[in-house]
């Protein structure tokens, strides 16, 4: 491992902080409270729906910790998950292959045998997860952009990691989103297992004006979080929607480009992050059957500066984000910390930030964000995904090809 030239040794001095509601104050062990970490002007004058929905108080970690670069030899890594033995399984977006990286930085040869990806622009080999019984069946599941008649789609596949770890055996596409579109943007692409053993998958609305409204359509699987079985069928217990043609796999809808999914370690609820346009990145707590508003409501504007739709941020029947960012940080992969090596991180949410080039640590209490910290900002990396290893450390991959290990000093 290559040690960074610095160690994150953060101040234990207490900054003055006042809050009108004690329930919004950081919980015990969150760290030292500071001014909000965002100091740049917002893109809009939109008002939050409730106190603390954006620009919450800053937080710094009191425990001394460090970050090591495990390797810089990856090619466009997009997803990372820890194997039971502590090694890291990584998707490589542009090559459509997997790599295994040891904690000592040894990188395997590319693992082949996956269906072909369309790596153009935001497409390629995206998120992955391990079967809950991986130790016995060696099954993995992943999302990728697939070229089909009519354009591109977000697809889900599964396969078995061969005993020699050189290939994926029996790779099978189990789910294809619809409709196809020539756009090579906004695929979503995260995947995880929920507590019932079913797959939760995020899909983007493909960005273009033609498909954007389909985030609100229950007959299309774009701009959705879907819930399917290991065989790609709609999962038992999914919400039931009225109207002809409503897709039975839909779990939630009204999403833009959701690139983060994580299950809360205590409540087992699914949390999700998604990219906004110019402003309006969101963190959501998913509730089955709920509409999260895009593009009808948003805290962002068009990249041109024009308003989106009716320029409204609230509407009856549409969920508010737990938290939003303006300007954007471009939130990507995320994970809850369940280790005990850094006590103040317990049950905190860590999110990779692309455009703002840091890892966001969010302290959450009673389903509200009560503190925000920016980690590794000086590295200048686009943090694409983050996971926790069995050793209790956090591991993060960046678009530039790095894998970091973050742990107590």
TrEMBL record:
Residues 74-405 form the Glucose/Sorbosone dehydrogenase domain. SUPFAM superfamilies: Soluble quinoprotein glucose dehydrogenase. This is PQQ-dependent sugar dehydrogenase. InterPro entries: 6-blade_b-propeller_TolB-like, Glc/Sorbosone_DH, Quinoprot_gluc/sorb_DH_b-prop. Residues 1-25 form the signal peptide. It holds the Pfam family GSDH. It comes from the Bacteria. The keyword Signal applies. Keywords: Signal. Gene3D superfamilies: TolB, C-terminal domain.
């Amino acid at each position: 491992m290559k040690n960074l030239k610095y160690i994150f040794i953060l101040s234990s001095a207490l900054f003055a902080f006042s809050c009108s509601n004690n329930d919004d104050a950081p919980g015990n062990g969150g760290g030292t409270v500071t001014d909000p970490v965002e100091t740049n002007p917002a893109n809009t004058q939109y008002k939050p729906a409730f106190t603390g929905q954006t620009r919450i108080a800053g937080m710094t970690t009191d425990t001394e910790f460090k970050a090591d670069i495990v390797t810089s030899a990856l090619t466009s890594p997009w997803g990372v998950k820890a194997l039971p033995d502590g090694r890291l399984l990584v998707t490589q977006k542009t090559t459509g292959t997997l790599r295994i990286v040891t904690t000592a930085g040894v990188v395997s040869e590319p693992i082949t045998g996956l269906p072909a990806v369309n790596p153009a622009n935001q497409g390629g080999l995206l998120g992955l997860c391990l079967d809950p019984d991986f130790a016995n069946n060696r099954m993995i599941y992943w999302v990728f952009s697939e070229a089909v008649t009519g354009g591109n789609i977000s697809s889900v596949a599964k396969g078995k990691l061969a005993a020699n770890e050189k290939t994926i055996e029996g790779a099978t596409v189990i789910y294809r989103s619809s409709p196809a579109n020539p756009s090579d943007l906004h695929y979503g692409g995260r995947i995880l297992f929920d507590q019932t053993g079913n797959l939760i998958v995020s899909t983007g609305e493909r960005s273009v004006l033609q498909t954007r409204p389909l985030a609100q359509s229950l007959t299309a699987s774009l701009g959705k979080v879907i819930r399917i079985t290991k065989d790609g069928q709609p999962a038992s217990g999914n919400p039931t929607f009225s109207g002809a043609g409503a897709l039975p796999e839909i779990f939630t809808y009204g999403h833009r480009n959701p690139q983060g999914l994580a299950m809360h370690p205590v409540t087992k609820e699914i949390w999700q992050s998604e990219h906004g346009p110019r402003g309006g990145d969101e963190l959501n707590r998913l509730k089955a059957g709920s509409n999260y508003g895009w593009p009808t409501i948003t805290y962002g504007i068009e990249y041109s500066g024009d308003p989106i739709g009716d320029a409204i941020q609230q509407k009856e029947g549409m969920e508010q984000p737990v938290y939003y960012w303006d300007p954007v940080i471009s939130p990507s992969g995320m994970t809850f910390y369940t280790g005990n090596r850094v006590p103040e991180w317990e049950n905190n949410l860590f999110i990779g930030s692309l455009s703002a080039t840091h890892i966001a640590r969010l302290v959450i209490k009673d389903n509200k964000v009560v503190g925000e910290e920016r980690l590794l900002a000086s590295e200048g990396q686009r943090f694409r995904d983050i996971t926790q290893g069995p050793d209790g450390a956090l591991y993060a991959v960046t678009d530039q090809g790095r894998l970091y290990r973050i742990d107590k000093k």
